[in-house]
Design brief:
It is globular, with a radius of gyration of 16 Å. It has one domain (about 5-180): Beta-Lactamase. The protein is built from nine helices and five strands; from the N terminus they run αααββααβααββαα. It has a five-stranded antiparallel sheet, with helices on both faces. α2 (about 15-25) packs antiparallel against α3, α2 packs parallel to α8 and α4 packs antiparallel against α7. The protein has helices spanning about 5-10, 15-25, 30-45, 80-90, 95-100, 110-115, 125-130, 160-180, 185-190, and strands at about 45-55, 70, 105, 135-140, 145-150. With about 190 residues, the protein is of the alpha+beta class.
């Protein structure tokens, strides 16, 4: 039986225990994201996109820095991030808005169906497609962190409720560990960020 089918029937407790143990031992953001990626890719055809600390104000978006506030997984195209960051600094991403204001995590496909963005509001999805990212699950942790998984296919029915909950829980654990290992940014106290 495939790992995906087994995971859909019951939570993979040994896999979850291994994940929490390895994340707790990881010392760098890249190690933490590698552990999360290994866990997530055993459950579904997904990889980790990355994790980022959100600024309190949308107007602070241009201050976001790769390696300080945003951490990409090795499988994520850096060119995608560069284009995304440049465009996000000039506008907004409806998916980020949805993630920040929701208590649950939605896939990009679900967000598109709920919000129905048109015209220029579709830019984050069109940019993602350019780099082979067909769908993603974006998890907001404490309205402070975003942790995202990406897929080359629509997640749809493969993302069952138990698997979604496992990925959300893993994202929360990952964000907590990232908060522990990254050096605090001195800008945080100047901008009122905790």
């Amino acid at each position: 039986m495939a790992v995906h089918a087994l995971a859909a029937k019951s939570p993979p407790t040994p896999l979850l225990n291994k994940f929490t143990s390895h994340v707790g031992e990881a010392e760098t953001p890249s190690e933490i994201l590698d552990v999360l990626d290994e866990f997530a890719s055993c459950l579904l055809p997904v990889n980790v996109l990355g994790a980022g600390r959100m600024p309190l104000l949308t107007s602070d978006w241009p201050s976001i820095q790769l390696g300080k506030d945003v951490f990409l997984h090795a499988s994520t195209p850096v060119d995608w991030w560069n284009e995304y960051a440049a465009k996000a600094a000039r506008g907004y991403d409806p998916g980020i808005l949805m993630a920040k204001t929701s208590l649950v995590a939605f896939t990009w496909t679900e967000t598109m169906q709920m919000l129905g963005p048109v015209g220029t509001e579709r830019w984050p999805y069109e940019l993602a497609l350019k780099y082979g990212i067909r769908d993603a699950l974006t998890c907001c942790v404490g309205q402070r962190w975003l942790v995202a998984y990406h897929s080359r296919q629509v997640l749809g029915s493969t993302l069952t409720q138990p698997l979604r909950l496992l990925l959300i829980a893993a994202a929360g654990f990952t964000a907590t560990r990232l908060e522990e290992v990254i050096v605090d940014d001195p800008r945080a106290s100047k901008t009122g960020r905790p």
